[in-house]
């Protein structure tokens, strides 16, 4: 949506607005990745394991990723600040109920509610920044937003490990509820804006899209206990795929689509979207499940397992800005993003040195390599993707980027966890011990054997992720190759070129 089509309804404070949105993008991803550290204790306290326990992770991220496009459309219609505020309220309520939950069903319901709220905060926050800032200020704001989200996702296990060990998992959820209250309070200092045209919400498109993601995710999650060929897995996955086909047909014929399908035909935009997905998803299995392995197969406490993740987190604090400077000094973005993906692939492959007695020095090389890859890619993908679209498509493109990144990462993260449990079940021959081991419970006389099998399952999963990221790096490299028909005149007439010409400091 172009700027002239945005109507501002109330003024706001730019610095406080940016700070509040960045706080949301820091802590909401943190609540997703950080919960993994608490899973073994949650499972023990609530007597849960397997898919039910895994849904503590999946429900939050699934709700957030599937509703971002819808939340963005509601913000255009009713006001971006209102959507942000409503999201903060739901997020706070979900985190508060999670802290008090007495059984796994209530906890999963509360986590899903928090995910619904997170969709409002993340989609509303991005739209608020887009409306509140222009020119180079907008570029810096969006770069900071992307970097902050990456830091929050990576720092979640470390902070949560300290909180869980010090205060317990219930107090950890209560702490995030307090952050939600702060986010809601900050909305009083934010500007209100919405689209000038009273466009209708694409209800059929929104419902089919949400339904498709929910069904596919639910089916993949069931594979952990039922096996990939079970009807409980195949039926929802096939139904979800059919809904995606229906969604495409609906959007093709809709006069007010929630997603303009022409974006999917833009080769460079899709290359950067694919890169953004795997820069986030490539480390996701390690970020989410490695603390469980270190506590279950190894002897780490929640605190030490979380602190071990600092080896992955630290590069994300520094490298996004370094990547931007490299691009501004003439390093082609194509080279940088391909290197990022290859480092993530190499770090996953290197982590196959994993074994129950591994110590921090043994983890340093693999985790730092993954973190360097994540840091190089996290700060540049959004800006590069948005440089490929017209100004009036930036809002929709941002929503699509967030959905691809969040939804795709959820699918890969779920498949990673389900793959671990499926391998364990096939080797052990029973579902119950497999799900228990994958949740970090390796107590009993067969602990050493189960730890060895858990390690073997990890090696298979890590090699699979490494191979996939390598293939994606090659695809992105090919898709970002300069077009033979693209002349220097075409380049200088592009929106991105005009921006670079007028603002040398902008990421290109």
In short:
Helices cover 78% and strands 2% of the residues. The protein has 20 helices and 2 strands.
Give your account of this protein's structure:
78% of the residues lie in helices and 2% in strands. By secondary structure, the protein is an all-alpha fold. The chain has one domain: MFS general substrate transporter like domains (Growth Hormone, Chain: A, Up-down Bundle). It has a two-stranded antiparallel sheet. It starts with 5 loop residues before the first strand and ends in a 6-residue tail after the last helix. The relative contact order is 0.13.
Strand content: under 5%
Q: Which H/E pattern describes the elements?
A: EHHHHHHEHHHHHHHHHHHHHH
What overall geometry do the principal axes of the alpha carbons give?
Answer: globular
Arithmetic mean of pLDDT: 80
In CATH, what is the class?
Mainly Alpha
Unreliable spans: 1-8, 487-508
Please give the radius of gyration in angstroms: 22 Å
What's the domain count? 1
Report the total helices: 20
Sequence of strands across the biggest β-sheet? 1-2
Distance between the termini: 21 Å
């Amino acid at each position: 949506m172009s700027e002239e089509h945005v109507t501002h309804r109330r003024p706001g404070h730019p610095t406080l607005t940016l700070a509040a949105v960045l706080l949301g993008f820091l802590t909401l991803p943190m609540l997703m990745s950080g919960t993994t550290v608490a899973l073994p204790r949650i499972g023990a306290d609530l007597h849960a394991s397997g898919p039910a326990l895994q849904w503590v992770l999946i429900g939050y991220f699934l709700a957030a990723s599937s509703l971002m496009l819808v939340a963005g459309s509601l913000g255009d219609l009713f006001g971006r600040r209102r959507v942000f505020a409503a999201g903060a309220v739901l997020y706070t309520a979900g985190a508060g109920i999670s802290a008090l939950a007495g059984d796994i069903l209530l906890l999963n319901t509360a986590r899903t509610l928090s995910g619904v709220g997170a969709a409002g905060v993340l989609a509303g926050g991005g739209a608020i920044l887009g409306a509140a800032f222009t020119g180079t200020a907008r570029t810096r704001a969006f770069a900071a937003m992307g970097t902050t989200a990456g830091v929050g996702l990576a720092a979640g296990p470390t902070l949560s490990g300290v909180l869980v060990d010090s205060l317990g998992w219930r107090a950890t959820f209560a702490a995030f509820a307090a952050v939600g209250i702060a986010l809601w309070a900050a909305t009083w200092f934010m500007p209100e804006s919405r689209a000038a045209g009273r466009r209708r919400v694409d209800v059929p498109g929104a419902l089919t899209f949400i339904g498709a993601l929910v069904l596919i995710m639910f089916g993949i999650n069931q594979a952990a206990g039922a096996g990939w060929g079970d009807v409980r897995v195949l039926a929802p996955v096939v139904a979800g795929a059919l809904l995606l086909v229906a969604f495409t047909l609906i959007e093709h014929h809709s006069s007010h689509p929630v997603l303009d399908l022409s974006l999917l035909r833009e080769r460079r935009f899709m290359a950067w979207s694919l890169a953004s997905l795997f820069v986030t998803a490539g480390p996701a299995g390690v970020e989410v499940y490695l603390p469980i392995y270190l506590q279950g197969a190894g002897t780490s406490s929640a605190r030490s397992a979380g602190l071990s993740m600092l080896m992955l987190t630290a590069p994300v604090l520094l490298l996004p800005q370094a990547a931007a400077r490299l691009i501004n000094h003439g390093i082609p973005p194509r080279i940088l993003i391909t290197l990022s993906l290859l480092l993530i692939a190499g770090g996953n492959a290197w982590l196959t040195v994993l074994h129950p007695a591994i110590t921090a020095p043994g983890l340093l090389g693999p985790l730092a390599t993954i973190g360097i890859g994540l840091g190089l890619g996290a700060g540049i993908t959004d800006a590069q993707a948005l440089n490929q679209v017209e100004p009036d498509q930036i809002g929709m493109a941002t929503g699509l980027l967030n959905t691809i990144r969040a939804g795709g990462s959820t699918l890969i993260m779920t498949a990673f966890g389900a793959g671990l449990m499926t391998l364990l079940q096939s080797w052990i021959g029973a579902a119950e011990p497999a799900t228990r081991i994958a949740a970090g419970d390796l107590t009993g006389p067969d602990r050493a054997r189960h730890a060895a099998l858990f390690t073997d399952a990890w090696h298979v999963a890590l090699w699979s992720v490494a191979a996939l990221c390598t293939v994606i790096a090659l695809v992105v490299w090919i898709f970002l190759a300069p077009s033979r028909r693209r002349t220097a005149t075409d380049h200088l007439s592009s929106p991105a070129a005009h921006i670079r010409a007028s603002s040398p400091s902008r990421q290109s």
